[in-house]
Amino acid sequence: MSSNVGQNYPYTSESEAERAAVIARLVAEREDLAATLAAEATPPDQNERWWVWKCPTKGCPGLLHAAGYASEKHAVYVVCDGTCAKTFLR
Ligand SMILES: [Zn+2]
């Protein structure tokens, strides 16, 4: 199975404040991210804590932070904070 749903177990967790800060920083740093999130994800709900996953991209040291929910699937929409800068569904 080569889908990006592999390695689905979380690596750690973070508070809502930590999650919101990371996503805000990534949106500020990456020109297209805000538009991508607006098109592909719905805003996150009011969880106190969020899972964080290791990025599955080879060679990328990043972690995946929840940015919201995928618009058309029941999945968390996550953004890598590392060098690959990809988005995934978890
Ligand atoms: Zn990555």
Describe the structure.
- With 90 residues, the protein is an alpha+beta fold.
- The protein is built from 2 helices and 6 strands, in the order E-H-H-E-E-E-E-E.
- It has helices at 16-29, 33-40; strands at 12-15, 41-42, 49-54, 63-70, 76-80, 87-89.
- Strands 1, 2, 3, 4, 5 and 6 form a 6-stranded antiparallel sheet that branches.
- Strand 5 (76-80) and strand 6 form a beta hairpin.
- The longest helix is centred in the first third of the chain and has 14 residues, at 16-29.
- It is globular.
- The relative contact order is 0.24.
- The model has no long low-confidence stretch (mean pLDDT 91).
- Bound molecules: zinc ion.
- Zinc ion binds next to loops.
Please give the largest β-sheet: 6 strands, antiparallel
Instruction: Estimate what percentage of residues fall within beta strands.
Output: 25-35%
Using the CA coordinates, give the radius of gyration.
12 Å
Which outline best applies?
globular
* Chain-averaged pLDDT: 91
**End-to-end distance:** 15 Å
Tally of DSSP β-strands = 6
Small molecules bound: zinc ion
Helical content class? 10-25%
Unreliable stretches: none
Derived from helix and strand composition plus strand pairing, the structural class reads alpha+beta
* Total number of helices: 2
Order of helices and strands: EHHEEEEE
